[in-house]
Design a protein that fits this description.
heterodimer, A: alpha/beta, Rossmann fold, six-stranded mixed beta sheet, four-stranded antiparallel beta sheet, 9 helices, 10 strands, B: mainly alpha, D-Maltodextrin-Binding Protein, domain 2, four-stranded mixed beta sheet, two-stranded antiparallel ribbon, 30 helices, 4% strand
Chain lengths: 254, 732
């Protein structure tokens, strides 16, 4: 479903010079699976997801979604994905219904098909109360629901959540994780980035631990703990990070 | 491009903007209230603008009696004004003073002190015993003998830096002239001569312009200005909200990951901005027309605007709105926030305003040259159309349309490129730290310069050259000319490029294209320079026909070509030195950096514009830019600087040699008469068949260059892959 091979991304930064945001990332994610990208800030998670969403172009390597290459078949790829970004990203002067309808139409849905699909989504996500509410008046939880509705309106096989729980309160975050689990159960391939380990433990079927543009370890939680002889994810995470920084002679901050 | 997506984006953006109170205020409410308020304010302010009395100090006024009356109490005599015009007399309050001025001080200083201390607007000083001397002056006339006395001086001291003093000066001058006429008439009468002896005729002015023409002329100066100003303003604010606002809200990422292509997003947003730009301009014009009809029709010389004017304004509005909207969109997408976006308005206005205001200058009319200037051509065309000069402007209409459409398309292309640039879309707000930045330039230098470094080098050369032109005096001799060219070429043009290549790139020789050219390329470049010469000569002649050279400038250029004895020195200065220095700078450093854009032709065009701009005269710059395109193409196709230097040196040498060696028709061999002819004004031209043959051969050689393989930059290869994919992908 998602195949990423030796993906690299370089850019220039005034302070740090030439930055290697991704230094050859590879992984595979399958349908009916939540694939977690776990890493601290600056690990390269957002860069990977932006490349998969065709927002950024990779400097090297390949990535394909449902058989379509992100670099050369970007238009096809965009039809295969639903993207929910870090910020809730809703239009202030549009209602929930208008926003979801707008994206539905951009994905080629029309008339009764679109309407029926929207009714179903609004029922499932319990959004009927905010149907005619303008984005500017919505709470963060409401905005996040609209973002999900917008991302799934065209029923894509792949869903990309980029730190979607960031800044949400516990109740809203819990509801979001529940929605993601439901999407997985429907057979979607979900790729989910976060730096919160509890979410990964609870939700993800496979995990890639990222740090400084590299995948340090990849597999199921059980496999990873066993391979690296660590008792839980938190210990595994710190072990891998410290080991990587030590090998690259980088003294960790703090 | 999928127009369905464009329509969807357009509809969403329009609805979004119509729900924004700030936009509604700008496009609808402000125009509706602005002009009626301005109209009302105009009449309110008028009462304060009425003419106020001015104070005049008259020193040593001639006594009443034998001379015509000048002063009557504290006014000038009523006989010096039109019968019944008491108001004009009241506006001049006169104080007479017989005391002699302080001889220890200069007359100017004394008058200034009087004005300062006494509050006078103008001081009028009659010479001592004016009456006696005035009478004495006409004695020879009375006796029919002798020579008349020299004219008497009546000194008037205004302070022309002050408005009230300028007004007073104008009024008092009228009075004194009238009094002088009276005095002259009295003198003539005393000799028994009629006034017509001194004034045999009057000038009677009969304005043939109809009232409607005056009205059209007045409105033709106002309406285009209002139209373009509001078209720009109306485009800018929605553009900021649609781009920077979308970044701020975080919705841009979502939109970019949707099936809408970047081009469709740009067109959707562009059409929205255009719509609001047009709406703002139309509403402003409508409100202005209403106010003009109701309020300004009260004024004698400015009735309501002609109805037909609005038709022309609407026709011109569409391309101008497209141009402004695309420019605003491209600038707005640079901004990271709406606040930052506001700062970009001022540079845009500063560039646009001179182009809008230039046509308002006296004597600037629609001609071939002006019609090629963006924005200015449209304003001049509108002015002429509003004044009803349809036939006169007809030849220039296609030109103005072509220039405006070309500019709009270029601006749209720029906006699209901005939306395709990751560094623009995901730009972080950065603190400006010059030392950090310089360290970054040296530390992270690539094999060839970056796009920004190339642009910096181009602008640096232009800037230094601009200041140099003021610092160095104009050459008085050929030696001066040689020094000027050598300093300009070596220090201003070549040195920055060479230093930047050494310090800011890791492979200076690769940057400056210092490598062996592929076989045959130098020969082909040399042949191209020879073949292209008649075409270049014709282009130069056409440019000088459109924008004629000042006579003095033409003479100076001619002197520089014919003055020196040594032709070799002339060739070294005009051909060889510029060929080496300019090629290393513009085809070497600048073009190498610009090619990182990923668009070969854009890089060639921009580098040739820099090259053209370094030439001193505008007429030279145009032709140099065209030649720069050919040089840029040779550089890209050959990957070597040597064919470019060869072409450049031969091209410049021919320009000099043809003028110098065979420019003199008397010494020209017979066979050359079949090729060359004297130009109607100055210099010489090739016959048309020669020019045609030159263009054909040049095209053939350029085609040969086109067929040669060339080394692409990584960005150009990627862009080609993407273009190829876009061209072969059909939405399914």
């Amino acid at each position: 479903m998602i195949h990423v091979r030796h993906l690299t991304k370089h850019y220039a930064d005034l302070k740090r010079g030439k930055i290697v945001a991704l230094g050859g990332v590879s992984f595979d994610a399958m349908p009916g699976q939540v694939y977690g990208l776990l890493g601290p800030n600056g690990a390269g998670k957002t860069t990977v997801l932006r490349i998969l969403s065709t927002i950024l172009r990779p400097s090297g390597g390949t990535a394909s979604i449902n058989g379509y290459e992100v670099l050369t078949q970007a238009s096809h790829v965009r039809h295969q994905i639903g993207f929910v970004s870090t910020n809730t990203a809703v239009y202030d002067r549009m209602t929930a219904w208008e926003m979801v309808e707008y994206f539905g139409r951009l994905y080629g849905l029309e008339g009764e098909t679109l309407r029926a699909r929207m009714e179903e989504i609004f029922d499932r996500l319990q959004m009927n109360e905010i149907r005619d509410m303008l984005g500017a008046k919505m709470s963060t939880g409401m905005k996040q629901k609209v973002s999900i509705a917008r991302a799934i309106v065209h029923d894509p096989p792949v869903l990309i959540f980029d730190e979607a729980t960031s800044g949400l309160d516990v109740l809203v975050a819990r509801a979001l994780l529940k929605s993601i689990a439901e999407l997985r159960d429907q057979g979607k391939c979900v790729i989910f980035s976060t730096h919160i380990m509890r979410e990964v433990e609870k939700l993800c079927d496979r995990i890639a631990i990222m740090h400084r543009g590299h995948v340090l370890a990849e597999g199921t939680l059980g496999e990873l703990c066993e391979t690296h002889a660590q008792p839980d994810l938190e210990e595994l995470f710190f072990h891998l990070i410290q080991d990587h920084d030590y090998r690259h002679a980088i003294v960790p901050a703090g | 491009m999928n127009w369905r997506n464009v329509k969807l984006i357009l509809a969403r953006e329009v609805r979004d903007q119509l729900r924004d109170r700030r936009t509604l205020f700008m496009i609808a409410i402000l125009p509706m209230v602005l002009y009626p308020l301005l109209g009302m304010s105009f009449f309110q302010v008028t009462q304060f603008l009425r003419e106020h009395p001015v104070r005049i100090l008259v020193v040593n006024p001639p006594p009443a009696g034998e001379l015509p009356p000048l002063i009557d109490g504290d006014r000038f005599s009523g006989t010096l004004f039109s019968p019944g015009d008491n108001r004009s007399a009241d506006l001049l309050r006169v104080t007479s003073q017989s005391a002699p001025q302080d001889a220890s001080r200069g007359a100017d200083a004394w008058a200034r002190q009087q004005m300062l201390e006494g509050g006078y607007d103008v001081v009028v000083s009659f010479p001592p015993e004016f009456a006696l001397r005035a009478k004495a002056a006409i004695e020879p006339l009375r006796q029919d003998s002798g020579r008349p006395e020299p004219e008497l001086d009546v000194s008037v001291y205004p302070n022309l830096a002050r408005d009230s003093s300028r007004t007073a000066y104008r009024r008092v001058s009228d009075v004194l002239l009238k009094w002088r006429d009276e005095l002259g008439r009295q003198n003539l009468e005393s000799r028994g001569l009629p006034i017509t002896a001194a004034k045999p005729f009057k000038i009677a002015t009969h304005d043939v312009a109809e009232k409607s023409q005056h009205r059209a002329a007045a409105w033709s100066k106002i309406l285009p200005l209002v139209l373009l100003l509001w078209a720009l303003t109306g485009a800018f604010y929605p553009a900021i909200d649609l781009c920077a606002g979308e970044k701020e809200r975080g919705t841009l990422e979502t939109l970019l990951s949707s099936p809408a292509e970047r081009l469709e997003i740009v067109w959707g947003k562009l059409l929205t901005v255009m719509l609001f730009s047009i709406a703002t301009a139309v509403l402003n014009l409508s409100s202005l027309a209403l106010t003009g009809t109701l309020v300004l029709s009260q004024l004698p010389n400015l009735g309501p605007p002609p109805t037909l004017a609005f038709l022309w304004l609407l026709v011109a509005l569409v391309p101008m709105s497209a141009l402004f909207s695309a420019l605003c969109l491209a600038l707005a997408v640079l901004a990271k926030s709406t606040k930052e976006g506001q700062y970009y308005l001022m540079p845009l206005v500063l560039v646009t305003m001179p182009l809008v205001v230039l046509p308002m200058s006296p004597g600037v009319e629609l001609n071939f040259g002006n019609s090629l200037i963006p924005v200015t051509g449209v304003v001049l065309l509108l002015r002429s159309l509003l004044e009803g000069e349809y036939l006169a402007v007809l030849p220039y209409v296609p030109l103005v349309i072509a220039v405006t459409v070309a500019c709009a398309l270029l601006a749209i292309r720029w906006a699209t490129n901005q939306f395709n640039s990751e560094s623009v879309l995901f730009r972080e707000s950065e603190r400006l730290d010059v030392s950090l930045w310089l360290r970054h330039l040296v530390r992270d230098r690539g094999p060839t310069p970056s796009f920004a470094e190339a642009m910096f080098c181009g602008f640096l050369i232009l800037l230094v050259k601009f200041f140099m032109s003021f610092a160095m005096r104009a050459p008085q001799s050929f030696a001066d000319f040689v020094s000027l060219v050598a300093i300009t070429q070596l220090i201003v043009i070549a040195l920055p490029a060479l230093l930047m290549a050494v310090f800011f790139t890791s492979r200076p020789t690769e940057t400056l294209l210092v490598k062996r050219a592929p076989f045959g390329m130098p020969m082909a470049a040399a042949l191209l320079a020879l073949a292209f010469h008649p075409t270049a000569n014709m282009l130069q002649a056409v440019v000088q026909w459109v924008y004629p050279l000042d006579d003095q400038v033409a003479k100076t250029i001619s002197q520089m070509v014919f003055q020196p004895d040594s032709i070799w020195m002339l060739l070294l200065v005009i051909a060889v030195l510029p060929a080496i220095c300019e090629e290393f700078a513009f085809r070497g450093f600048v073009l190498s950096g610009l090619r990182h854009m990923g668009h070969k032709w854009t890089a060639i065009l921009v580098s040739s514009l820099f090259f053209g701009a370094t030439h001193a005269l505008f007429q030279q710059s145009i032709v140099a830019s065209l030649v720069g395109v050919i040089l840029g193409y040779i550089a890209v196709q050959s990957g070597s600087i040597w064919p470019c230097i060869l072409f450049h040196a031969i091209h410049n040498s021919l320009a000099v040699l043809v003028q110098r060696v065979i420019g003199d028709a008397g010494q020209r061999p017979e066979w050359l008469q079949w090729i060359l002819r004297d130009a109607p004004t100055d210099g010489m031209l090739y016959h048309w068949p020669v020019v045609l043959a030159s263009a054909c051969v040049s095209t053939a050689i350029l085609y040969w260059f086109h067929r040669q393989p060339y080394a692409r930059t990584p960005e150009e290869s990627l862009q080609e892959a993407i273009d190829h994919q876009s061209a072969h992908w059909m939405p399914g």
